[in-house]
Every structure is written in structure tokens, then in C-alpha cells.
Amino acid sequence: MSGVRVDGSAGDVDYGEIGGGYRAYRQPEPAIQRAISEALSGSRTVLNVGAGAGSYEPVEREVTPVEPSETMRAQRPPHLMAAINAYVEDLPFADNEFDAAMTTFSVHQWGDLEAGLAELRRVTRGPVVILTCDPDLLGRFWLNDYAPEVIEAEASRYPSPRRVAELLGGDTSIRPVPIPLHCVDRFGEAYYGRPELLLDPGARRANSAWSFVGPQVHERFERTLRVDLDSGTWDERYGWLRRQAFFDGSLVLITALPGE
């Protein structure tokens, strides 16, 4: 498969290089977890593709996780089922085998979006639930002022939610997911009101978009953000975000029910 890395990572990111500390930074956020659980409705058996370290897997359901990266599979906690080594474009399951399917923060890394979505629909008789980002909304994040290259790299990778919904077909919905101020799933926009935390190189490493820019961008980002935090410039521009309970960023939840 095109894009396969040494540890089995699919798509455009090598999690053998950047995924080592992923679990320490990317914990499941309860508010997001609730939105996913509601979308899964009464489903008992759930396929989780791109399962990674197990974030957002509903422990009250029978989950079958799929994850091609050896590094990410190794970080799964012992109370979760071991992940199957497979790719979304070629799932080793029968037609309509699962009540529901889910994937979080992974569609932008698939080698073939259309084939992957077709496979999800093939093996799922109920809802397909996808947590992803709308590339047209990424510019809302203050990071665009400090490292526009990161925003540009991220926006170039994410497919339009409308395209995802169209490819899945059936009865689809796209709903925004507000990001809480103290979001424990520390993806990029989770730092909207906590800029200091993004100065941690490990925090950036846990967000794959940063792997697409060179060290000079990291260095410039750290330097300029530190100066603006020390001088109060960041707070003059964005300090109100520190008191905002939720941020309406790019995060969306796509739910697709099969057609008649």
C-alpha cells in the first residue's frame, strides 16, 4: 500500500517517529465522548478504525479496534481489546458485520478516502460515525497568526465534511462539536485558551500537522509566542479566550445512516 511506514502506519504520517508519547497528551475528552456515544445510539457491536491508543472507544459496547501502526497498538491500555493490524481500505470483515462503525481524527490520513468509506459502509449495518475537522474552519484558531504553515498543512490534508457525507450516502448529518476550555484531548485547537501549553515540544509532536513543517517553523513559533506571552501581546489579542468555556473551531461529527 502506498504510504506504508516501517511500523505499519498508513497515509502520510509515520507514527513510529511521532507517536511514542501520544497517549500522554491525547486522552478522551468526556464532552466529545458523549457526542460520539449519542451518535452510536443503541449499537452493541462497534468497529473502530484507526483506533490508535483507544481514545473514545465506548467501553460499554463490544468494540473491534483496527489500527495499522505498531507504535500506536502498543500504547493501548490493558483493559481494551488488542487492535487488529489492518487497513481501512481492505477490512477483514463480512458485509454488515457490525451494528456501527466509528473513526476519530483519522480520515485525513487514509491512503484512499473513497475506498475506506466504502469499506466502512460495507461492513456496517447501522450508523457510521466520524470525528474529523472542517479544513475551511481551521483558520479560526489563533495559531494561524504564529505558524500559518501548520494550519495550511492541516487544511490540505482534511477532506471536506460534505464530501465525506456524500461518499457515505444515506441519511447523513454534520454537526459542529464545541471544544471545552480544559479539553484533555490535546489536539491543536484544544489549546485555544491555554497557549503556554503548546510551547511543549511533546504537545506539538502529538499533533501530526507539526510533522509537516521544518524545525525553523517550530523555532520561530516558540520564539514569537514566548515574546508575546511575556509582553502581554497575546493576551491583548486573545486573552478573552482564556475565559471562554467552549471554542467553536473546526471539529465536526459526521453521522451516516444507511439508505433505504
UniProtKB/TrEMBL annotation:
The keyword NADP is annotated on this UniProt entry: no
Keywords: Methyltransferase, Transferase
GO terms assigned for molecular function: S-adenosylmethionine-dependent methyltransferase activity
Top-rank taxon: Bacteria
InterPro entries the UniProt entry points to: Methyltransf_11, SAM-dependent_MTases_sf
Domain Methyltransferase type: 47-125
GO terms of biological process kind: methylation
Protein name: Methyltransferase family protein
Species name: Klugiella xanthotipulae
Organism placement in taxonomy: Bacteria, Bacillati, Actinomycetota, Actinomycetes, Micrococcales
